[in-house]
């Protein structure tokens, strides 16, 4: 079960508070979108869930178990960034396989020379290759596994980044504006693909965007944020038809 619970979560950078009093329950398998103007704290919030940024106070649990003490790679979450964060010197295959090779091979088994000598590596690598191939097929990038990221289109890079997140079979996907670097047409197409992926995986998605159309079309629920707080939480229809104030209304673009 991957129910995510945020309790009284707060974050300050030095003396500057950027998030305060964040209480949020995200159901197992839910597609929840955080939306709000630039600088309202969306990225900081999901970076805290990923363990990339320590919270100042409050707690985070997944499946009823506190994850506050866990380091990023120990949390059963995977993050997809706007910038893809692919390694340029590595093939698509190696980029996707990386979380698995890090997990299953020791540092010395990953060194170029030792590679050839390690029998454990010879045992583990075919398994990893099978898993990477299965994910690549799902994302329809199996023909690109030998390429370097520089020779991929924006949409293909985004799929590789997704593949690297999927290969760990996380309980929770965290996505920080994953489509914002794509052109408008591809963005609309990838929206549909992400929604389908969510249907297929039935995993909890916490999705960040400042694009209200994205939020309204893909999400089970939307949390509208402003200045480090959640202003309103509800289904897209609820936010559109019954915005609690003018800020929500104008951001969501509802007629109220
Ligand atoms: P969003 O993703 O909604 O645009 P962010 O979470 O990136 O917002 O930022 C929220 C606020 O925290 C902003 O005012 C930003 O300048 C500030 N902030 C983010 N990261 C840092 C940091 N590492 N150090 C200091 N301030 C930061
Ligand atoms: Mg951001």
TrEMBL record:
It comes from Microvirga puerhi. Belongs to the ABC transporter superfamily. The lineage of its organism: Bacteria, Pseudomonadati, Pseudomonadota, Alphaproteobacteria, Hyphomicrobiales. This is ABC transporter ATP-binding protein. Keywords: ATP-binding, Cell membrane, Membrane, Nucleotide-binding, Translocase, Transport. It comes from the Bacteria. One of its GO terms (molecular function) is ATP binding. Residues 4-252 form the ABC transporter domain. The keyword Translocase applies.
């Amino acid at each position: 079960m991957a129910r995510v619970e945020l309790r009284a979560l707060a974050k300050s950078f030095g003396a500057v508070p950027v998030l305060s009093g964040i209480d949020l329950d995200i159901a197992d398998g839910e597609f929840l979108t955080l939306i709000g103007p630039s600088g309202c704290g969306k990225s900081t919030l999901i970076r805290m869930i990923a363990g990339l940024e320590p919270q100042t106070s409050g707690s985070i649990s997944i499946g009823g178990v506190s994850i506050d003490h866990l380091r990023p790679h120990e949390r059963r979450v995977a993050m997809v960034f706007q910038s893809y964060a692919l390694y340029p010197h590595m093939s698509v295959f190696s980029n996707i396989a990386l979380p698995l090779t890090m997990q299953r091979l020791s540092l010395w088994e990953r060194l170029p020379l030792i590679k050839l000598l390690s029998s454990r590596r010879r045992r583990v690598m075919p398994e990893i290759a099978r898993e990477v191939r299965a994910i690549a097929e799902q994302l329809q990038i199996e023909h690109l596994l030998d390429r370097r990221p520089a020779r991929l289109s924006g949409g293909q890079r985004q799929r590789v980044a997704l593949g690297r997140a999927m290969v760990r079979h996380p309980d929770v996907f965290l996505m920080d504006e994953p489509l914002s670097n794509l052109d408008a047409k591809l963005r609309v197409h990838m929206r549909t693909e992400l929604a389908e992926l969510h249907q297929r995986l039935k995993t909890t998605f916490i999705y960040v965007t400042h694009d209200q159309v994205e939020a309204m079309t893909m999400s089970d629920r939307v949390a509208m944020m402003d200045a480090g707080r959640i202003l309103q939480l509800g289904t897209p229809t609820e936010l559109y038809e019954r915005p609690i104030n003018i800020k929500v209304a104008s951001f969501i673009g509802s007629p109220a």
